[in-house]
Design goal:
By secondary structure, the protein is an alpha/beta fold. The protein has helices at 33-45, 56-59, 65-82, 100-116, 121-135, 138-154, 172-182, 215-224, 236-250, 264-270, 273-278, 296-308, and strands at 88-92, 163-166, 187-192, 209-212, 226-231, 259-262, 290-293. The chain contains 12 helices and 7 strands. Helix 3 packs parallel to helix 8 (215-224) and helix 6 (138-154) crosses helix 12 (296-308). The chain is elongated, with a radius of gyration of 30 Å.
Length: 316
């Protein structure tokens, strides 16, 4: 019995399936007008034939992460250039610090919930937290007033200086955007896409409100044109932004700017900076990288004084 050719026999000895190229159609397909027309329709409707920038499925691929990051870098940059925004003042602060009426409403709801469940320790804890937030609600007014006086002084010329920029969310970010809105001035919101969607507050200038996927690109735009960083009381997010600004200044990786902690009582309880220096983990002169302010006017004056003695510098 003759042996089957090697390319037609599997390793198990059974005949191998013929290759696709060995199965030829009965007719010459290129002569089939209807089939050619159908193929042409499929070509024109194929995602591969669309322009790359008009192919959302392509842009969402993991391999295109670098392109998405480049877009997040370029989109706000073009908008800032078109609006002649030359410098910004960053306002960071907690989302939970709201205006007094809203804080009092939250406290009332906490008290009702505790009355309905007298033995619930979490309900009693919520009352304590809500009472503290009522006491801290004056920071909302302070952030709003600070943004108002900064904005009204610096948006009268063709170039816009010291434009307020926030993370675009609620709480103290809302207060700062609202202060600029109060006097008809522009402000920026750099919002971030989160698992629990964070909507932008309604006081941001519409054409200067951006949504980011990447924290890195968002942080880059905060720092790029910053002339000052003002940190109102906040939580983990505010602390992250504070230490990033301090680290960049400590290592000379950003332009010299005043870093102002608003509310010495709050910040001195949150972080013992002197202990860091006493422990030798930061230099004594690193404590000069930031200062405190207690009023909107004082914070603004510290910014003016800082830049009055320095020549303008190019962004890092």
């Amino acid at each position: 019995m003759a042996q089957q050719p090697k390319d037609e026999q599997s390793t198990s000895g059974t005949p191998a399936r013929p290759k696709a190229c060995d199965i030829l159609p009965d007719t010459t397909l290129g002569n089939d007008v209807a089939l050619v027309a159908e193929n042409m329709e499929q070509i024109l409707s194929s995602p591969s034939y669309s322009l790359a920038q008009e192919d959302p499925a392509l842009l969402q691929r993991v391999e295109m992460r670098g392109v998405r990051m480049l877009l997040e870098l370029g989109k706000p940059e073009l908008a800032f250039l078109e609006d002649n925004i030359t410098s910004t003042v960053i306002v960071f602060g907690g989302t939970q610090v709201v205006e007094r009426t809203a804080a009092e409403r939250r406290l009332s709801e906490a008290r009702r919930a505790a009355a309905a469940a007298p033995g619930d320790t979490r309900a009693r804890r919520e009352i304590e937290r809500s009472e503290r937030l009522v006491a801290m609600s004056h920071y909302y007014d302070d952030a709003r007033e600070f943004a108002r006086i900064v904005s009204i002084d610096n948006q009268c010329e063709e170039e816009r200086h010291y434009v307020i920029v926030t993370g675009g969310g609620p709480g103290l970010m809302e207060a700062a955007n609202r202060g600029a809105f109060d006097v008809g001035c522009k402000s920026i919101g750099l919002n971030i896409k989160l698992p629990a969607e964070q909507q932008p507050n309604p006081f941001i200038t519409p054409e200067l409100c951006f949504q980011f996927k990447y924290f890195a690109m968002r942080k880059f735009h905060f720092i790029l044109r910053a002339a000052a960083v003002v940190l109102f009381p906040g939580g983990f997010g505010t602390l992250d932004e504070m230490f990033e600004a301090l680290t960049l200044r400590q290592t000379n990786r950003m332009q010299p700017v005043p870093i102002i902690l608003f509310g010495r009582d709050y910040w001195s309880k949150v972080i013992n900076f002197q202990f860091l220096a006493d422990s030798g983990v930061v230099a004594d002169h690193h404590l000069d990288l930031f200062t405190y302010a207690e009023t909107p006017g004082e914070a603004w004056q510290k910014i003016l004084d800082f830049h009055a003695t320095r020549k303008p510098q190019e962004p890092m």
